[in-house]
Amino acid sequence: MAAAALMLVACNSGKETKVVAQWNENAPEKVKFNVGGELDTTFVVKDGKLEAKLPVCVTAVSRARVGSSIFQFISDGSKITLNPEDGSATSSSKKGVFARYQAYNKWMEDFMSDYRAKVEEFKDDEAAVIDYYDQVIGTFNDYQKKTLKANKDNILGLMAISQIDEENPKEMLKLLDVLSPELQATPDVAKMKETLTVKAETGEGTPFVDFTVVQDPADPEASTVKFSDYIGKGKYMLVDFWASWCGPCKAEMPNLVNVYNTYHGDNFDMLSVAVWDKPEDSVKGAPEFGIVWNQIINAQHIPTDLYGIEGIPHIILFGPDGTILKRGLRGEEVGEAVKKALGR
Q1: Maximum distance among all alpha carbons in the chain?
Q2: Rounded-to-integer distance, Cα 289 and Cα 255, Å
């Protein structure tokens, strides 16, 4: 509630954005505005003309609804003109946040169009696709970081930081610190920082974080398990966080079955932890997925909150003492990580 209030304050700085439009025919009676996701207000159209004054809000996209049509813009203090003929919106300032927002979207559209076209050329050559990605990701990240640096106090900074391809949570936290205090106080950024902090604290090279799960609430005494019942017991442990409804989880299972059959023994074992799932569905789905190793069910959000897991499957390799060796493993990376850890 407090964070939402901070956003509203940021969107009411005392300055105003003037929004105008002209209809030669079929003029609406009124136009409804949503400013920064916080303020809804309606202005009447007189003699085919709209003149609205809105609070400045550069931390979110604002919208004008005319019938079934939606105009998007940034309320940045400039004069915004809505064009009913083509559904566009333009700003009187070429250097304002809205103009920069439009330029950013154009750059992204062009970049992604070129990228998809090139990938289509390489569609039968996976190695070439990966090589091309490695060539262009630097340019992409540099553009996002440049945009962030120039837009620390507005939505463009948020958009840019969400696009940066950086797996190191500590580096991402440094980038978030570039944002203005007002943006850092918004709910979205606060949540990002919370998740990244958790990831940094449970990154590779850090000790495992223990948790307890009651697998069957009807029989808590017999069904309560701890993560430490399996982790840190002298074996390398590969842990898969999954759910029965998760298509990518199912797609990963043949690879996991192969890893288990290849390396299971005195030094290596596996554990599946069912999250965000009904316990009965996890029990039914496990054999269908091919899970024959140990499993914990009904974990829900407990481990995902502790380990900053935002999507599944999420696969982590733990050392014999419980140290996190690798996380976020997928596909061939899983077997390669296990093989390297075991020295084979």
Answers
A1: 83
A2: 11
Asked whether 309 and 241 are in contact (CB, 8 A), the reply is yes
Residue 185 reports pLDDT greater than 80: yes
Relative orientation angle of helices 247-263 and 279-289, to the nearest 10 degrees: 50
In the chain, the N- to C-terminal Cα span, in Å, equals: 54
One domain, residues 247 and 322: yes
At 18, list the tokens: 């003037």
pTM for the full model? Answer: 0.73
Question: Under a CB-based contact definition with an 8 Å cutoff, are residues 213 and 298 in contact?
Answer: yes
**Domain C-terminal end among 73, 93, 113:** 93
pLDDT digits (tens, 9 = 90+) for 269-304: 999 999 999 999 999 999 999 999 999 999 999 999
Q: Dig out the tokens for 293 from the structure.
A: 């190793």
Domain that holds residue 38: 12-93
d(CA 41, CA 63): 11
In this structure, the strands spanning 236-242 and 268-274 are parallel
